[in-house]
């Protein structure tokens, strides 16, 4: 088989694989979360031009987010279990209405844990960026890189691979930024530090969030 034909076959297989995951993905499971955001917005409309944090449970559990960056208007619209494609799917309801100044996204770990390859998750991230760019072409999108946990240490190599792809993509495109948080949870032995996690060994505790805050702060815009 010629190389070009081989690459075409590989590309086709990747597309079919992504379509299969999309067909199986249950976006409706998050409808209640999105509806709750909308109810909350009607009761107390958030300010436009804020910093919007989205993604999965690392952002959901960041209960001190607004207090940690008091000089900025912060909106948290993350929901636990979120995969990148969920934020893309619901962007019209959980991103665009806020006309955010910047978007910070931390997601991808659940995607890999569900069985997606790093390449598939990276493709989902590019789809997310493309959807945002279509409506907000000049907004900065900041990807908060994955960091390993005790509970999902088996996924560490795949998570690091995804981080690497996003780093390269970020360097090649304007208005994209990447926050490297990989080492914040690692000890001198190269293993995740249990003392930085709550009992489930997956989610950060207060000490873990202090390290994350220090990484995110330099990427916040000046007033």
Explained architecture:
This protein has 223 residues and is of the alpha/beta class. It has one domain: 3-Layer(aba) Sandwich (Rossmann fold), CATH 3.40.50.1110. The protein contains 10 helices and 5 strands; from the N terminus they run H-H-E-H-H-E-H-H-E-H-H-E-H-E-H. Strands 2-1-3-4-5 form a 5-stranded parallel sheet. Strand 4, helix 9 (156-172) and strand 5 form a beta-alpha-beta unit. Helix 8 (118-135) packs parallel to helix 9 (156-172). The protein starts with a helix and ends in a 7-residue tail after the last helix. The mean pLDDT is 92.
Describe the structure concisely for a colleague.
The protein contains ten helices and five strands, in the order ααβααβααβααβαβα. It is α/β, with parallel strands linked by helices and 223 residues long.
SSE sequence, one letter per element: HHEHHEHHEHHEHEH
Number of strands: 5
**What is the global morphology?**
globular
Average the pLDDT over all residues and give the rounded result. 92
CATH class: Alpha Beta
Tell me about the biggest sheet?
5 strands, parallel
Fraction in helix: 40-55%
Counting structural domains, the number is 1
Q: Based on the structure given, which CATH architecture is correct? A: 3-Layer(aba) Sandwich
User: What Rg do the Cα atoms give?
Assistant: 18 Å
Largest beta sheet: strand ordering: 2-1-3-4-5
Roughly what fraction of the amino acids lie in strands? Answer: 5-15%
- CATH homologous superfamily classification: SGNH hydrolase
Count of separate DSSP helical elements: 10
Residue stretches low in confidence (pLDDT < 50, at least 5 long) are none
**CATH T-level fold name:** Rossmann fold
Cα separation of the termini: 58 Å
User: Helix/strand/pairing class, anyone?
Assistant: alpha/beta
């Amino acid at each position: 088989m010629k190389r070009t034909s081989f690459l075409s076959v590989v590309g086709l297989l990747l597309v079919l694989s992504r379509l299969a995951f999309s067909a199986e993905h249950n976006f409706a499971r998050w409808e209640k979360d999105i509806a709750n955001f909308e109810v909350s917005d009607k009761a107390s409309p958030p300010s436009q031009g804020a910093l919007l944090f989205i993604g999965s449970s690392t952002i959901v559990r960041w209960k001190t987010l607004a207090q940690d960056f008091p000089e900025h208007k912060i909106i948290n619209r993350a929901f636990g279990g979120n995969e990148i494609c969920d934020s893309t799917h619901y962007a019209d309801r959980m991103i665009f209405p806020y006309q955010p100044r910047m978007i910070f996204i931390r997601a991808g770990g659940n995607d890999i844990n569900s069985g997606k390859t790093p390449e598939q998750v990276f493709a989902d991230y590019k789809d997310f960026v493309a959807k945002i760019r279509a409506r907000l072409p000049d907004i900065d999108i900041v990807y908060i890189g994955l960091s390993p946990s005790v509970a999902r240490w088996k996924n560490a190599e795949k998570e690091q691979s995804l981080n690497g792809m996003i780093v390269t993509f970020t360097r090649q495109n304007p208005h994209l930024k990447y926050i490297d948080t990989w080492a914040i949870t690692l000890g001198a032995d190269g293993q995740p530090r249990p003392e930085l996690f709550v009992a489930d060994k997956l989610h950060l505790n207060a000490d873990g969030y202090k390290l994350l805050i220090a990484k995110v702060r330099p990427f916040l815009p000046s007033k």
